[in-house]
Design goal:
Blueprint lengths: L2 H4 L7 E7 L5 E7 L10 H15 L4 E8 L4 E3 L5 H11 L11 H18 L5 E5 L2 E3 L1 H7 L3 E4 L4 E3 L13 H4 L7 H8 L5 H6 L5 E2 L5 H9 L7 H20 L9 H4 L1 H8 L4 H9 L6 H12 L2 H14 L4 H17 L1 H12 L17 H5 L21
Parallel strand pairs: 2-3, 3-5, 4-6, 5-7, 6-8, 7-9
Antiparallel strand pairs: 1-2
Helix pairs in contact: 2-4, 3-4, 3-17, 4-5, 4-16, 7-15
Amino acid sequence: MSDTQQNPIHTAPVLFDTLPTDSGHFIGMIQLNVEKTLNALSLQMIDLMASQLAAWQNDDTIAMLFMHASGEKAFCAGGDLQQLYQSMRNHHISDQRDDITANQYACDFFEREYRLDYLIHTYPKPILCWGHGIIMGGGMGLMAGASHRVVTEKTRLAMPEIAIGLFPDVGGSYFLNQMPEGVGLFLALTGTMINASDARFINLADYVVAQGDKVQVLKTLQQQAWTSLSTKNGYLLDLILSDAQLKFAESSEAVQAGPIETELSTIQDLCNQDSIEQTIEAIINHSSDDKWFAKASASLAKGSPSSAYLADLLLHRAKNMKLADVFRMEYNAALHCAARPDFAEGIRALLIDKDLKPNWQPATHAEVSAEWVESFIDNPWPAGAHPLTDLGHGD
């Protein structure tokens, strides 16, 4: 039994448990447990999960993993940015401010977060991610790679990094490219929030199940004839979740089609321009009575101009890349963002001072040059020395 299980107060930021099944196997339970911060992902949480996932990976008694969160508001609303913000402030006034590798906390945070995300993507056992409530940023990184992704009637997903001067990282350059043409770029540029139906429509989720059926799904999982064969276990999990989804779809509370599905042709027309400049202009100037569309346009207009162009560049570069290469590229871009003004300024305006008045540098889309954007993916490490150089080897 782990230390967190022995602690009756359950104060650990991530709780681990094992549920017995009728077949003698166990279900590994992972519960994000910082409800007051909407389960925002800290470096401590990342390390705890990475360690437990590594331990269960080679444990033949563990048939599958079930990842969920405390509370009803959020699975994970993103990364815990407070310490990252302070590390950027300190780096910006240091003698090493021109060296993107000199911010040790940022280097550690992004490396270990991306390693955890990659581990989930490539995990040899089924992982069921129960994504109830708000899922943004770092939470999307945890969910995107799970083999079985469940959303509920209360799920709201977004990659809103443009509002803080970052970009859709945690593999976003990879999974946003798996969507219908134009949708990934639209979501990256606007940071707009989508519902469960749209999440399934654009391949961010696999099943839509009622939150009220969660306990029953867990009971059903405990009754199954699990084996040591991951493929067979994954198929068994699919059958269970398909039944739960069908039950919900036939109920009066079923989630209706979302704006991505209903407005797909408009979104694709807006993003099918000759240049990113024209795409940005088309989205910002799009006139619609739909509040969702209006909010999306406003978010792009208010967001970091550098982030918009960087997101587009990364999506183009990642189209033919392997996942490990995408994470290496995103790692470079994340450290460049941490070393430049907009990321810290975006966090300040949104979370620290909360004045919602970021001073972006450059201030307008017209001031962003191609050279400026390209420099965000410069690799400062010599061949074979990248911190994530081993990612993907032996897969």
